[in-house]
Write a structure and sequence with these properties.
Layout lengths: L5 E4 L9 H11 L4 E12 L2 H7 L2 E11 L2 E11 H4 L13 H8 L6 E10 L2 H7 L6 E10 L5 E10 L3 E4 L9
Parallel strand pairs: 1-8
Antiparallel strand pairs: 2-3, 3-4, 4-7, 5-6, 6-7
Length: 177
């Protein structure tokens, strides 16, 4: 997700496809190589925003998204502890089929996704991980995946440089008057 004019379409990351596979396909469509690394997994104290949705403790999967060998996005996926503890979501290995497959096998589907985006100065840790110069801002996307009865079960927090990132949303308004 770096380079002048890079546009990421959020819709391909929702649903059954694994996020890593979607990232690889998106990068390949731009003639680049997209990979990801699992940095950390396990039960953690949830940050304030996540805690309001999932509870004080959550299972996290921290990943670095790389484009042509350079880290361009940091993604933390948080899951309700009562659902994810003891599952593949809490283990450090990549998940074939992605987290949506694991949740589905647990009988949990998330047909409703809400995304919120903010821009803010990068933290020192983000600047180091993303190799950003001083005074660069980042875009932070919060994606909340909810069940049909509106219960949040997953919150993704994605951080990328605001210098080159563009997010694309596409919606259908058929029948809306």
């Amino acid at each position: 997700m770096a380079g002048a004019g890079w546009t990421s379409s959020s819709s391909q990351y929702a649903g059954a496809q694994a996020p890593g596979a979607a990232w690889a396909q998106e990068a390949a469509s731009a003639g680049q190589r997209g990979t990801h690394r699992v940095l950390e997994t396990g039960l953690v104290e949830a940050p304030e925003y996540v805690a309001t949705l999932l509870g004080a403790r959550a299972v996290v999967r921290r990943r670095a998204m790389d484009l042509d060998g350079r880290t361009v996005e940091l993604t933390d996926s948080y899951f309700r502890a009562d659902i994810a503890a003891g599952t593949a979501l809490a283990r450090p290995a990549k998940i074939k089929g992605g987290p949506a497959r694991v949740l589905h096998e647990l009988g949990i589907d998330t047909p409703r996704i809400v995304e919120e985006i903010e821009a803010r100065p990068a933290t020192e840790a983000e600047r180091e991980a993303l190799k950003l110069p001083e005074n660069v801002w980042v875009l932070v996307m919060y994606r909340t995946c909810r069940t049909a009865d509106d219960q949040p079960v997953q919150v993704d927090v994605m951080v990328a440089s605001a210098l080159h990132q563009r997010l694309r949303y596409e919606m259908r308004t058929d029948g809306m008057m």
